[in-house]
């Protein structure tokens, strides 16, 4: 899928569906918040949510007192929905409308979080472009938390094919310089009651990686 069709797909999704009409909706992103805590994040840590869409993760982080939260997503409509929901708290978040595979990071972060965005990159070139941005934007010693459909999870999401993973396949895709520190399975229940098996793996970026 090229950059233009990818963007128009996601803009259409967020322009036509309400927050709880998408399969990935979560009232509270419990697993993500827990893993960000396990990564040792403190109030001043730089945290970026890649493909954050209209997720409530930013709301949860701001309400827990995190002061340096960024949400990046391809869809400006998704970011607008999140900002509108958060009201004044939206001013405490940095919003970046960009395709992560062509984004030029201008700073580094302590925590890179991604729930269900990386798995849409099925083309090895797009995966490599994503990983190049991860290596530039995540400081040595920082943590990358990547949630995808598990190997026995759905083959498609939002009508698009996905790459399913476990910790081993993610580690192999990321390449050297990342130490796996936690992996867990999570069963997400869609708003219409269908279970979806996810995996979340947390990697620490090695000092010399
Ligand atoms: C399944 S949704 C998950 C949204 C959010 N992470 C959550 O857990 O609610 C996937 C998100 O990834 C975004 N996305 C897909 N490809 C992307 C890309 N190449 N760059 C940035 N965002 C992307 C989509 O716009 C969408 O918001």
How would you sum up this structure, described in words?
It is globular and about 45 Å long. The mean pLDDT is 97. The longest helix is centred in the N-terminal third of the chain and has 14 residues, at 3-16. Helix 1 packs parallel to helix 4. The protein has helices at 3-16, 30-38, 57-63, 76-86, 124-137, 167-174, and strands at residues 46-50, 68-73, 93-97, 109-115, 138-149, 156-157, 160-161, 178-189, 195-205. Helices cover 30% and strands 30% of the residues. By secondary structure, it is α/β, with parallel strands linked by helices. A hairpin with a 5-residue loop joins strand 8 and strand 9.
Strand tally: 9
The outline comes out as globular
Provide the spatial order of strands within the biggest beta sheet: 3-2-1-4-5-9-8
- What is the helix fraction of residues, given as a range? 25-40%
Order of helices and strands: HHEHEHEEHEEEHEE
Poorly predicted sequence stretches spanning 5 or more consecutive residues: none
Named once each, the bound ligands are:
S-adenosylmethionine
Proportion of residues in β-strands? 25-35%
For the sheet with most strands, the description reads: 7 strands, mixed
Descriptors:
209 residues, alpha/beta, seven-stranded mixed beta sheet, two-stranded antiparallel ribbon
Provide a short characterization of the protein structure:
This protein is α/β, with parallel strands linked by helices. The chain is built from six helices and nine strands.
What layout of secondary structure does this protein have?
Elements: H1 3-16, H2 30-38, E1 46-50, H3 57-63, E2 68-73, H4 76-86, E3 93-97, E4 109-115, H5 124-137, E5 138-149, E6 156-157, E7 160-161, H6 167-174, E8 178-189, E9 195-205
Parallel strand pairs: 1-2, 1-4, 2-3, 4-5
Antiparallel strand pairs: 5-9, 6-7, 8-9
The structure holds S-adenosylmethionine (SAM).
């Amino acid at each position: 899928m090229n950059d233009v069709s990818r963007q128009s797909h996601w803009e259409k999704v967020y322009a036509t569906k309400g927050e709880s009409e998408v399969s990935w909706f979560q009232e509270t992103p419990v697993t993500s918040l827990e893993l960000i805590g396990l990564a040792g994040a403190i109030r001043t840590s730089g945290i970026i949510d890649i493909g954050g869409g209209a997720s409530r993760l930013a709301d949860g982080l701001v309400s827990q007192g995190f002061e340096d939260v960024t949400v990046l997503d391809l869809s400006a409509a998704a970011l607008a929905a999140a900002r509108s929901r958060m009201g004044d708290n939206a001013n405490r978040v940095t919003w970046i409308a960009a395709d992560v595979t062509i984004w030029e990071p201008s700073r580094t972060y302590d925590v890179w979080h991604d729930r269900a965005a990386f798995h849409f990159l099925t083309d090895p070139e797009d995966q490599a472009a994503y990983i190049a941005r991860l290596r530039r934007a995540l400081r040595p010693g920082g943590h990358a938390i990547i949630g995808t459909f598990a190997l026995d999870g759905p083959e498609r999401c939002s009508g698009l094919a996905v790459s399913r993973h476990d910790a081993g396949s993610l580690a192999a895709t990321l390449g050297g310089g990342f130490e796996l520190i936690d992996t867990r399975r999570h069963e997400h229940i869609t708003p219409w009651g269908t279970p979806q098996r996810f995996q979340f793996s947390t990697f620490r970026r090695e000092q010399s990686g």
